[in-house]
Queue: 3 jobs
Job 1
Amino acid sequence: MPALSNVLLSVTGPSELRVAATDLYLAISGTVNGIEVKKAEALQFQRRIFERIKMMPEGPIHVATNDGFSTT
């Protein structure tokens, strides 16, 4: 089940991001407030993105997609 190995990020308000993940035994979801939204979308990332984010230095994180659904 591909959805179980990913994390869903979705914009739920003008400055709110919802984060959700599950492995059928445990589900987690939460919101992050105070984000800057230029276009409301929902993105699905592989779980390992959080390991990469933890290794990054403190500071803002920018996520962008293009019309071909590539994410940078």
Job 2
Amino acid sequence: MSPRFAFKQCSLFTLLTIMILGLTGATALAGLKVGDAAPPIKVGGWVKGDAVTGFEPGKVYVMEFWATWCGPCVAAIPHISELQAKYKDKGVVVVGTSVWENEKDQAKVKPFVEKMGDKMMYNVAMDDRSGEGRGVMAETWLAAAGRNGIPCSFIVDQKGTIAWIGHPMQMGPVLAKVVAGAYDAKSAAGGETMMKQFQAAWRAGNKDEAAKIAEANLDAVKADAEMLNAVAWTLVDQPEVSEIQLAAAEKYAVAGVVASKRERGDILDTLAAVHFKKGEIDKAIEVQEEAVAKAGDDMRPQIQEALEKYKAAKK
């Protein structure tokens, strides 16, 4: 595996960890899933902001589940606040509900929120723990969706339907599409099904079969640049790549470049890697030079290193 794999923010297993293992993809195995009507809001009390008792038609809601003791939850709070500020005027309402906290932990919620101040600028509630179980919201949202870890966000669209379930740090691009009315939840669900099948074949060592699954389902994910890049990079970033795997990788890499409007350095880097594996050195260099020009500061050194590798191979 190449050193710059770590800099591929949409590597397959990162994507699967976020989208499949307990998040959006997990809903296929549970009662609550993308496309279902959002469950009711029943919290034990409001700590900050306005009380939200239901889903108003025409507005988009982000139901964010977190806990004071959860490090990743705390780390995601500023990002969630940024999204609330960005989309507040477009009808987005964020509700952060603390869950899985015992009586002692719940007593810490209000002081925690007060200490966060401007870093936590959205509505905050505590779960209803008046009955048995781990809390009403924890049961009707998280457990119902097969989610056994936090942080976890649900995006509820303008019709009160669950459009997406996932890690809040991955929510930005999806939220933008939902707000614009351009998010196809049905298509996204189909893509997640393909990814689970791809993962199962890949983990079983049936890499050619995984490639065939990907190729047969390209239309289901052709608009999802992240997923396209994840599959293409996984297929090409290995010491030995079969013709079947390489063919699928090329189709996904090309589609990823198109879906990203040729603006993503990391996705161009994937396409260049495909050309290099095919022995198309000149094409690899040409695309990699473009990747370097469009890469972010965090990835540019690794992409530049790959470019030097391709140039050395030509010599």
Job 3
Amino acid sequence: MALPSEEFCPVSDKLLGRLYRSSPEGLAVLVRTVPPNTRAMLAYYCSRRAHLESLGFYIARTCSQEDLYDVAGRAGWDLFARAQAEAVKIAEPPKPKSRHGVTLATGPLWTIPGPEA
């Protein structure tokens, strides 16, 4: 039985590490240094790994839908749509949480049982 071939990262481990550890501003600069086709491959590669998924979505937002399709077919279109949906979620202001008043106890919460008489 043949084992599935290991998928290789389309960029060097060093660059992937730098992307992973970058601040949002640094990430934007680094991503622009990657050619569009390689960027699409990297977005697809990262999106398929749980610990890199958000990085994959970020990179996918910098890709054209056509580049993602060329790299991953229908999965590339799905990635493009998911990345755009994530961008909308990030851009939405957080909804205020309903605040219920705090009720404080007015009597003892617990009494120490005394010896039985």
